[in-house]
């Protein structure tokens, strides 16, 4: 290593410019609590990020390139890049200035390893300066003044911050940018200095995250407010809605932890109680703690206990005491804020805060008001009420009766209502809290007389009251006012002026209220309210007050200056207002209710638990963390690129659909993920593939890339959890994502391409389902029961034409919703899970599949216009456009099997002696080889089988998985062909592979052998029997011919079948042959093997769409057909589009039998199946039809060779219509 003298600067660069800075930026994810304080107390928030200055002032802007070069060289020569350098800011302190002080975080002596001093010394020497001592710190905020209360208040906040521990990845160079906007300046990221982290770890690139929420300084001239708790320096303050993190009390650890995955399947209650209480912060510092025990006992009293508790004026000290109380933890295990006394949880942002506690999980957001310390906490309880979410908004409006404070209150109320209307227009609302609105007419009239307020302010007060009573909002106290038999203690009704009845702030009887009252008259005011917007779902049933004065040894004692309020609400299904046509449709689609009193829901739940149909808590946590990790990587919220140049942000949203989103997933379920963004699908998958590959060290692996007609999908493994990732290009959806849940079906935002609508459909359907299912817990139990039954009976596989998760969801939800409304009156009916399962089986056992289709008649007000083809014996439709048949893979033999199983299940459940244990069988009946009762019956019930054998010895099992997937996709065609040839036979495929022990473990488990079995037998109701021996022999030969033709199709498919790595066979076998093979279900985990990284097709971009500055690819010789020696007819040749439509739609022709030959612009002549041909121009695989060269059959009549050409452009031959040269020479 060179000596320090050899590496010193070639010349000195002055460090006197306040326009630049050399500093260290903590990772964004570590700054959550620090930035929440800086936003309110640091005048530099929005202009500077959270930072530790190494050199400030730094060099002049024009000398930055040279300074960067010299410092970079110095660090590379003097620092070991393989040594990690940590910083732990675990000590707080104050910098005293003339008029105020600055609260800071810094390293303690015990935690410092000298990294900061080393880096500063190297940087100064590189610039030609002698190192000097420096006080390294991170600024938290500035106090209002140097009074003891102000100093201790802010430093106490800083002391509650969790230790800020991180590794130094790079040094940031900031430069000041002066703009005319808001008359402010801000620091921009100019560049960085790397080489501070081990080369094996990729350092996160720096981004200008602190500029995203930049806004103007708060206007302090709007009147009185609680600004004593803030800084007079007025830091910039973001008024954007901010998502909050919900905390959950973890009983095993005894700690409050982040609720990573909020449970949505909460049993829907029939009633709801909400309490609101202002707990009073009566001193800034030191905090008064003498009332804490009385406050806690009041909140735990029977008159205050509720399902949701909204608290105002919450301090760090009292929230810690409250959440550490065992009875509170039991009553309210969920909270919007955790206890600040817990080491890993930061302080509340303000002196007086709004906090929401609940017995149910919820998500929440902060809606900031104009004033820095004012805002509403909006808690959202998903699926708690029928028809949508329940929204509970906790408020604490500006206090005081002045012109400015009343005007501020009006704006705050309007802001909140605007937010609720924009984002939750279809939901029920409860707005609870301290509104600080003077209600006493005596107080208001005296304020007018004394000119404390103007007549305009009096009008504004009336306008606020009108705001709070509009949009069908009702006051819970007003609704129950006439039924209340008692008044607040100490009042004679004759002594009260108008607006003083029901007062919650009563200086005449509450000593604390008298001490904090801002008026000389000390009249009672009804400050605290609970407002309800019903949406025909919530109905006020009662109203109570708590925290009233009590007598203690002859002295009146109160916990707070306000009384608490509690509203009791009933929850009911909204009465549907149906048109005559809609009612007629529902009447025609009745579902017969089949109660089963001998089967209990408790027994059902117990049996499902025994059958492992529920996730354990460990599995829930593991799957939730896996999704959060994937989300972080895909959205690049924690980037892992060594490139320090900030890349432009790409708006992306990642959500889950399917069983995980409905909270009905099991340990074997995939997590289906949908990403929505503003870029093309090609660009997305190219980008996300890079991000996922870089995150391989975190446990993310790409198993397979699937190209399907519906688009591209990535199969992933995230720390062992299987996931599927799909993408939907929809920029307008991302732009309005915050309001997406409440958008109307007819909103112009849904004017998207068919491809985008198809991708978005599962998520839109999921939202509608969660809003409208009567009870998600009941639905979840029934779903699990039907799924377990389907798996056991071998009919759970949508790719083989049976039931899948989406089938069960749509079919079950329709039955549940319809049977929950009594025929004729459509009044709501309560249905338990056992009755729902029995009704489900009975309904579909007797369903007219040939003439009807399953759809939700509550969503579709009239019968959907869906063109059903002859190939769709079963139709199940979703909700939103485009209408598509979920059961498009169904076959007639498969439907016959389903109907038979539905009938059997229905008959069994109607038996009074049946139990759930008997219905599902004993869980321990599965044998050691994994053979369950269903598999054993299948191998015993059929005399003959078609065995489709697969052997694979290829290099990677990703190839093997593709081979198996391809063969699976072809099995349905064999089933249909057998049924066509032998309509009197039962043809049933078991939807899982079987394997034997002899082949499965060869070569370390990398060789594979398995088979699919199709059982064959005569239908029991078929009297047509094969007579003599000759007829049976002829039938066997016909069946063998069908099987041989199927096998020939597989083996001649050069794209999917490679004889050098695999072998496929299909043959007729007997029951005896199958039983001697020692078969067992195949439990091979294909996901245990990494995918074979092939060239990404996304990189093969066409020059028409992308310009490439590199070398042009060499274009291969294009296909050029031989000239025909036959004279060409002058008759016009029918275009390729006509032939395509004829082959696709003619009921006498099968599109699967035809191949399209086309000209690829780079590869020459290529072929693809007619079924795969895309005609939608927005589709990624779209090819113009003028490139079509010919149409041909896949096989000849014997099924063992190349099929004949039926249309060819070059020779003008047309055997379809007879145009051009007709049938050729």
TrEMBL record:
EC numbers: 2.7.7.19
Keyword Acyltransferase belongs to the record: no
Localisation per UniProt entry: Nucleus
GO BP: mRNA processing; RNA 3'-end processing
A single GO cellular-component term on record: nucleus
GO-annotated molecular function: ATP binding; metal ion binding; poly(A) RNA polymerase activity; RNA binding
UniProt main location, coarse: nucleus
Cofactor: Mg(2+); Mn(2+)
Compositionally biased region (Acidic residues): 1091-1111
Endonuclease/exonuclease/phosphatase domain span: 276-562
Poly(A) polymerase central domain segment(s): 778-920
Every Poly(A) polymerase nucleotidyltransferase domain range: 601-728
PANTHER family reported in the protein's UniProt record: POLY A POLYMERASE (PTHR10682), POLYNUCLEOTIDE ADENYLYLTRANSFERASE (PTHR10682:SF23)
Protein name: polynucleotide adenylyltransferase
